[in-house]
């Protein structure tokens, strides 16, 4: 069964309380990086603001961002740290429309056979039945490969195992990834596997640790720093497999953010985490599907900046978010943040990736 | 690459300290169910005892069992509770031969390409590379289907999901199971899925809970008790899929042990856990491969009664034990018991089973 | 602040739909151990049944038990396996009263400062704030020691550590336990600690493993079997500390149920799990507070047989259930069963017990 | 029993192979941030290098750093990224002395009653006995308060609960912390608790979520950014409790590193993670005890930069590292890195902190 995009139904602003609601209030920023009191904080849902008597949909969203009215009449979403003096911030903390602010959580729900994708699923655990989630994901990814923008968020666990590393590389090569967000560790271990067959010194296939193999990790980093870029490293060392290789070869953007426990780092890693957030958000704001694997911090980071909808070519469609982790605590953490529109699977990402490859490639 | 059985090398008892060691000492049981002081407790390894100047291999083993010399000269392994007055128990707590007792942990190790199956693998976790373990298991199971005795130990988690329940059923139908050890819960949820499509009231495919579906669990139990046997239930209700169905249809013995949290129970469940142990041991003593899925207690129970070797048709071969669980704590627990000869995989058993089916059936 | 028992408010059966509801229907049992079709299954909440025009409260409850009308007009709760031919079972699967069956979940809620003990607390995890839960539990236990019936359900983890084993022993000695439900493993490790200072061969204080200490476990079991009873063992071996010792000394009933992975077992362990359930239920039906520590199966077993209320001396009061485990999965499992009236703490039971002792003894 | 520092025994370099070993080889850095081929990577242990016929102890260590010979004859430890052109790097990958490089893991072991603190403790889990570890830690901290440098590494979980937040604050006030390493999240939630009584919108004592309390988190950040510094914020808002308050009041350095999932950030958070590492290392190189609570990344970060020994006032003493986390996976991860000299406790950090306060303050 092919995937079908659910349609979006705008609220009926001819009804009350919308019709007689006042315009949303606006206060300007007086200090760089600081919002005015009573600023409105955005959710992951579509939010409408009444301005000049019209209900305007924010052009995008981002959890905990602030809505800023631009001179062209659009509403953009800005992080505190990026607020500029004179920015026009919408203030108010109600969500039901009567103050000119309306958070609309049900736009995709009512009239669609796929609408159960949005149902609140309580208590997902290792014992939840995941067959249907897998099948829906296969269909979704086949649709998204050609019609969407699939963003992967990767923890290092995806490259420790031979089969799963190959599986993910194949998915990238076959067009199932439009951007990859990760950190220094994932890229380091992946390149170590390409160059030495090991990850953190242990062979990714037979689990053996050759003598002095704990140096592989550092040697890879040192070689990469000497090469000056991952592209040069790959050429110099004739690397021909893995996540980094497949990304570069297929021109899939690879954003690597720095982390406090990094060795190295590799050349393209962004040391400033807020600058890294800005780079990540360039892709999450285009994302139609987000798949987060075995990384709690990057998952929350990317999840926070990914709204539940996207405007594309004049239409509004849902954004699908998946989070796969072996720990219930980790997947629940994302949902507890308010990102209820997330499909979580509790399993080892190795097996998850091999399933995807088997069913897609 | 086809699986090859490693050969076993007997100890060289012409060497010291074996040659000049005394006979092992024997003390008779004086009270039923109580071993004499200083009794020898068995391990999972081959153990030899010097008797009448000859080194005799115990005909089988069982962790924490007691070696009893029978009148026919064989050494059998008996649990405390099964000791009878006058049983001749071997006493002594050394293991290196100098008191006539020799525990032999290296019989399969030295000269075999598959010997790394026996290596101590420290720190297996969600981040261990499992590709090779999967591949070796596929080869092993293909060999064992025709040449061995594969015993499955199942927790209820194997039947909560549609695909994994189908996968395991297919493996049973295709001959990959020679006996199944489980509890009331696994069988109950499996039959609920067969009859109502739900497990504990939740649909095993789409996760939905129809109205009053929490009654399905009890209704299934009540119907089974009314039928009087699972075979009759399956006929009466025209059940045609699942673990219980496939076991019965393919005449695979299914041992169901009672547990303190059971509802019901189903007709064939054994209420006395020690009697259930005896029934389980009938199969573990024949086992050449043991696969334990998502059940901590049954895994330890079966692991305790499964030795690392088996004598079959005059030859001695290793017994392969696998333990798959999503929690590191659970798989480590088995290894901490001394069962180092266990291959553990940390993942969701749903995915594990679907992989097996994809690669075997 | 001293603990105050919330008062119970009976439903107003003068209102509709109660007033004009028909009597509940009754069907008699035709086969031993099998309920009639459409039998009513009980919850943990107070349930009222209309009989002869009167709304009668079941005298007790038990999850998944069946309501049976006795000739004296009382309604008792019977497990399937204990149903006798001619038992009068109430049938019907609605809960709102209109068929003569009313499940009443809010009897304690409306008018009490402690009523938040009953609130649904979503998403409890390692990051939940537990200070208030601890404080309320201290107050509750001080009240219950003199006015209630505190039942402990213990996994073996409570005796592996020196301080926590001492803490729990002290709580028992000081009157904070009226019954203890556990298995062979808890008692075995506890007595091994009393006799040898080790649990499963490892010293409970300094973590060291003396030579051949893995025999301690078996030696203890063998000595206990020789002694014939735990009381005799304690006298013979001059044991003076621990859970078993404190229970016996203070005449606190100790129910030990058999489990599939038991060695031994110890003399008083009940091999038949359903007989063990019957023994456990003798105490859970008296329980006013139930505290379950680090044992998934026994927790579910005891939780299933413990209702949310108890009738005592003509009044109805709530039963408080606590479940403490280090795994979110384990504590959520109990809640997923429908036992929402449970306070769960995610932590190591060692620390939990030491806190209790520090604040109570 | 008071804590006693174990003495350190230098290797006997008059013995072979030390005596006739060649000098260690040196190669100069040719490219900034890149080590010469075959560079030596440091461990957490004391390492000696033969230079001009003398065995010189590196003045400090840092896992995976590179030893650089300074013109004053000392050996310093430099991260790749901080290597400068012309730095003299010691090369060679043997550790036993015969190439002029000696890694010395046993300096504190042989002759000391506390030496078991250094024993390899396999398989620590939720079921390990922790009583002795607690007692030793109490003694250690009392010694270190006056004679050492205690560095805390804190995940946000330490401030979600009322009692544990108070406990840690008291420990800081009483002199048990000489530096604190954490991230934006810990400080944000702590200050939210100080200002609103909530953490991420949930009351830290009674778990309730007042209306719109999810704004507290953002409001706190916004106020802090407006204040411009945490000190000013605390004064302006009259904050009088918590981790941040106690640190500032007691002049305990508080290093806050940025993370990819941060909101805000707070004013003093260091956005560049490598600069943050440099700031952290200023304290870890002074650390005599390191206590890491519920933060996987910061724990590995700090653990990597903390050696197993420290030279102070001419003597060499051990550095004690503790890691407390509720997940076995997290604590094992640190040990798998090679940091075997770590004492790990598997529990909820809330309870751990309250125990510390009860026994120290």
Describe how the helices and strands are arranged.
4 copies of one chain form a homotetramer.
Chain A: E1 25-28, E2 47-51, E3 54-57, E4 66-69, E5 75-78, E6 88-91, E7 101-103, H1 131-147, E8 150-154, H2 162-173, E9 179-183, H3 184-196, E10 198-199, E11 202-203, H4 214-227, H5 230-236, H6 243-249, E12 254-257, H7 273-284, E13 289-293, H8 296-304, E14 309-312, E15 315-318, E16 320-325, H9 328-336, E17 342-346, H10 349-360
Parallel strand pairs in A: 8-9, 8-13, 9-12, 13-16, 16-17
Antiparallel strand pairs in A: 1-6, 2-3, 2-7, 4-5, 4-6, 10-11, 14-15
Helix pairs in contact in A: 1-10, 2-6, 2-10, 3-4, 4-5, 8-9
Summarize the structure in short:
The structure is a homotetramer of 361-residue chains. With 361 residues, chain A is an alpha/beta fold.
Describe this entry's structure for a reader:
Chains A, B, C, D: This is Arginine dihydrolase ArgZ/ArgE-like C-terminal second subdomain domain-containing protein. Chains A, B, C, D: InterPro entries: ArgZ/ArgE-like_C_2nd (IPR048963). Chains A, B, C, D: Residues 140-356 form the Arginine dihydrolase ArgZ/ArgE-like C-terminal second subdomain domain. Chains A, B, C, D: It comes from Desulfosporosinus youngiae DSM 17734. 4 copies of one chain form a homotetramer. In chain A, the strands form 5 sheets. A 6-stranded parallel β-sheet of chain A has the order 12-9-8-13-16-17, sandwiched between helices. In chain A, strands 1-6-4-5 form a 4-stranded antiparallel β-sheet, with no helix packed on it. Chain A has 2 domains: 25-103, conserved putative lor/sdh protein from methanococcus maripaludis s2 domain (conserved putative lor/sdh protein from methanococcus maripaludis s2 fold, Beta Barrel), CATH 2.40.420.10; 131-360, putative lor/sdh protein like domains (Rossmann fold), CATH 3.40.50. With 361 residues, chain A is α/β, with parallel strands linked by helices. Chain A has helices spanning 131-147, 162-173, 184-196, 214-227, 230-236, 243-249, 273-284, 296-304, 328-336, 349-360, and strands at residues 25-28, 47-51, 54-57, 66-69, 75-78, 88-91, 101-103, 150-154, 179-183, 198-199, 202-203, 254-257, 289-293, 309-312, 315-318, 320-325, 342-346. Chains in contact: A-B, A-C, A-D, B-C, B-D, C-D. At the A-D interface, helix 4, helix 7 and helix 8 of A face helix 4, helix 7 and helix 8 of D.
